[in-house]
Amino acid sequence: MCRWLAYAGTPILLDTILYKPAHSLIDQSMHSRLGVETTNGDGFGVGWYAPDIDVPAVFRDTGPAWSNRNLREIADHIRSPLFFAHIRATTGTAVQQTNCHPFRHGRWMWMHNGAITDFHRSKRELAVAVDPDLFPDIEGSTDSELMFFLALTFGLEQDPPGAVARMAGLVEQTGRRHGVEFPLQMTVAVTDGQRLWAFRYSSQTDSRSLFFSTRVETLRALHPDVEFLREVSDETRVIVSEPPGDLPGAWNEVPESSYGIVQPGGDELLPFTPQFG
Amino acid sequence: MCRWLAYAGTPILLDTILYKPAHSLIDQSMHSRLGVETTNGDGFGVGWYAPDIDVPAVFRDTGPAWSNRNLREIADHIRSPLFFAHIRATTGTAVQQTNCHPFRHGRWMWMHNGAITDFHRSKRELAVAVDPDLFPDIEGSTDSELMFFLALTFGLEQDPPGAVARMAGLVEQTGRRHGVEFPLQMTVAVTDGQRLWAFRYSSQTDSRSLFFSTRVETLRALHPDVEFLREVSDETRVIVSEPPGDLPGAWNEVPESSYGIVQPGGDELLPFTPQFG
Amino acid sequence: MCRWLAYAGTPILLDTILYKPAHSLIDQSMHSRLGVETTNGDGFGVGWYAPDIDVPAVFRDTGPAWSNRNLREIADHIRSPLFFAHIRATTGTAVQQTNCHPFRHGRWMWMHNGAITDFHRSKRELAVAVDPDLFPDIEGSTDSELMFFLALTFGLEQDPPGAVARMAGLVEQTGRRHGVEFPLQMTVAVTDGQRLWAFRYSSQTDSRSLFFSTRVETLRALHPDVEFLREVSDETRVIVSEPPGDLPGAWNEVPESSYGIVQPGGDELLPFTPQFG
Amino acid sequence: MCRWLAYAGTPILLDTILYKPAHSLIDQSMHSRLGVETTNGDGFGVGWYAPDIDVPAVFRDTGPAWSNRNLREIADHIRSPLFFAHIRATTGTAVQQTNCHPFRHGRWMWMHNGAITDFHRSKRELAVAVDPDLFPDIEGSTDSELMFFLALTFGLEQDPPGAVARMAGLVEQTGRRHGVEFPLQMTVAVTDGQRLWAFRYSSQTDSRSLFFSTRVETLRALHPDVEFLREVSDETRVIVSEPPGDLPGAWNEVPESSYGIVQPGGDELLPFTPQFG
Fold this sequence. Notes:
alpha+beta; 6-stranded antiparallel β-sheet; Glutamine Phosphoribosylpyrophosphate, subunit 1, domain 1; globular; 26% helix; 7-stranded antiparallel β-sheet; homotetramer
């Protein structure tokens, strides 16, 4: 039950997106407008790709993002062509670094807003479904990390949309077997450093908000005076739980039960359906 | 720019007051109603007196109170006849333990809601006014701690209202000399473990809210069914920035420019005026 | 790979045992003598029973014990007839509150020094053996917490020595099935607030050190000038990984493969053998 | 009472120097050999210059460096031509971010190993000597930060060696006036992002250790197989409290009462004498 942001495009200082806009993600950590929880002060994380290094860096800490000086330093000094940022509001699991997003496995990163409903009931069955070779690497206690490990188990590195669909299917099946009517609520971002997938789905067809930025060339025509738009490539894209800034025409809602792919050569928007085993 | 609570009376579990009431202080850390800042997530503290030990215990930490498990443990297991609790929203100074309230000196505790306006301008002059023997004990960087050290310098241990009046006078004089129209905004609680003084004052005569609980015997007559009221002595008193609970008739506003004394034998409410050196 | 201390007897300030002695547990956090790791700075915890409350308080934090001011405050102000203290040196699992000892379940507390060898190999099988109703309550990622949950699964609340023996048996069987020659190394303390059990065992018969204090009446005769000994009851007992203080005759090694029971009416020392399912 | 490292030369991953060598700085945080304190677990910091940004980034945190995952991430992903790293062992002042080195002012960074003896006695006088415009920016409570502010007051940005000499002179004069025989013990590194100054001095002529790396071309001839040496420029230089690695001929002690300048065009080594006002 969180907020997140994913950026892919021309390398920029993280600050440009994380702090500079009005109602930025860091502002949202204290005062969100669209969320169920208006305060997201239970930890945060940023993950970014650095030049010539496959494995992304992940910086996560447990206090609120709004007062974290190290996050401010990183945002002011690091440029990246692809980064994730996440602010957390826990619904009960411990506030600890290993429960903060993004999660990482090799060169893959994952972050999530939402919840497995009544996670307590399904947790053991879902944990047991994780690939035994991966199981010992689970470090935290969240539903979000477990969803990532299930997706990895189901082939995330070969077929991201398929693996996420199988993960969602298992979560729904398992929840329903335990009497949970609407087991899954999620917006998820996942990347391998080249492409970025963003999913919006919930069992109840009432998913947490998710937005993608309008094509840069369209925005540039609408707002010729905005410097940032002149500096980034046409292929630059931002995906967010809740729009920062106040640029008219900049944000479009990701439709219910769908997912987008941000990739070189043209983005895509496709329907998403859980897949049952 | 914070919220605080002071309790004096029959020894109770801290939990009774800190967590149990609707809209408790810990709830207020996430969602305050009356404050300038609605989120108070930049550290917190509790200070309490234990049997047969003059010096109070002070437990302070830097994250939000709402998710702190150690605070929950302490509140569930410690009984005290006199305790302070404080939740902090910084307006810029560092989020660190030494900036968290309550502050302690020997058997004295101090906590504050408010600010010295444009503290940056007056800070050095005020620091220089601190008793040279006390100066090296300043550990943090807040206006609140400095106000405490000034009050100690001006005789807090002998004459609390007089020392606070002289501190307030110096803060106002110094601020005005630096062109600050309304230099001081404060509600302050201070105690030596026996008596408790609570001050409400601001240069602008527009002070942060402060409330004291109605006499227990009156409340008991109004609410004969409330168990807590049957268990505490007639002399029990609570002072708060913002009322917890929803008991009609329970809370009374401390008047502008005044201070109260909670003490054995009868409480008092008196006018407060800064005193100029 | 840690150090711990368990106290049962006349209620004392935690400080008396945790800080006051030469080479106290808190000193050991920076400079241990007997341990494999000489620095135990990866988190710590204390757990204590308060009057009239069945569930013990547990205060745990992630930094070093030696510099933790809140621990110092607690030790200076809290008296308890039965408390645990633990300092941690991680061998790889995350430094986080949920990995700090003591662990608690209802009115039971558990702490551990040692390791499940090559835990990574056995972790999943051991986790799956935990009672499904308990499984979702696992919060951390350590072998120590999992050992506690296994002991709970095997009847810790009914028969502590039997449950610990079955846990140890399962750990050894599982480890050996994965090719681990010496799967278990442990000293464990467990209590329900009335009695206290302390185990010393390792697959290799080369267990981490463990000591119990000499009977108070004997010590009192040897050291008539030691004030502390005059103040505590004959039944007071301390069990430690590494002796604090420098009182000749005060400490006795717990024999290999054995366990002690500290209880009203007379302590016991018995052999310990893992039990295979 | 700490350990530090300063690097200037060909941009490298921080990891190359901070973690990779045997007995690296991060190893030293747990097990130092040369220091008065063998454990340096009371906070740490790294500061680095990023391309095209004058102001260095400063990442500081309060736990031990050895277990800090964010430091590991930064070291693995950030390249810099000039960086500082520091591990702290407090002698009493609070363990908090604002007491961690390096300290920063504009594009200047400062770090220190040593102490002002009996700092408590001199603190107020030294604080009062700080430029009133700078005074409000003091955030922590250490002697090290105050030394930095005094050096800034005395013209650090115009004449670093002169400003440090005047700072040292004031510290000695003030200490001696308070009856301190040997008021100052210091190794200090300071940089503006272009040049780097390193000082070794103590009132007692018994200064903490300080070493500088041998010229790269000499080392390269001695150790033609060491890959790192082939990759860095001839002008690359490292200065450390305690040598990491085990390369024969790699380290030279900075003489007592002297300072070095690392700069484009040729380094210098000069005598250092405090200057009295």
